[in-house]
Known about the structure:
Blueprint: E1 3-9, E2 14-20, H1 23-35, E3 43-51, E4 54-62, E5 70-74, E6 77-79, H2 86-98, E7 104-113, E8 120-127, E9 140-147, H3 148-153, H4 162-175
Amino acid sequence: MQKRIVLQVLPDNEVWEIEIPSHQDRKKLMLEHYLSKKLDSFACTSAVIVKDNALLLGLRHYTPDKWKNISVWTTPGGRCDEGETLEETLRRETQEEVGINDLTIVHFIGETPGAKEGDTVYMFFCSTLQDPVLMEPEKFSEWRWVPMGQYFEEAIWKEMNPPAHNLIVNYLKNLQ
């Protein structure tokens, strides 16, 4: 429900009407705003996918030619290609990494610095009815559904990008 505020401006009695969107409408407008953004290759997306009270995470193995020699748990997502919107990137990366093509993008969670210098990660809360498939075994060794309680508490999940982890935890705890 939108609120209507009427302002009367003196001395000529000019009347202005301003509609203030509801909280849900503001969230929808913000989601649409971010999904339509076209950014450069320093922009990355992250699909925070929840199904049956569990979060989808994959064990990603980086190599020195891509970043550094490290393995971390992460959500599906990746870099924007030239000319892509954040929505196109989010859907493409999710399809490429886990084979999910029925992704429902629910909310924009926020943005956080990426693990690589200069990167920004745009995080979206999503849902699906599909289970992940290991599509890129050269990059990932597994995908799994992690119960939210474990994700909140266990140290192993905190090793991914710590600001991203904190943003996800805060968002998911507010949903419960």
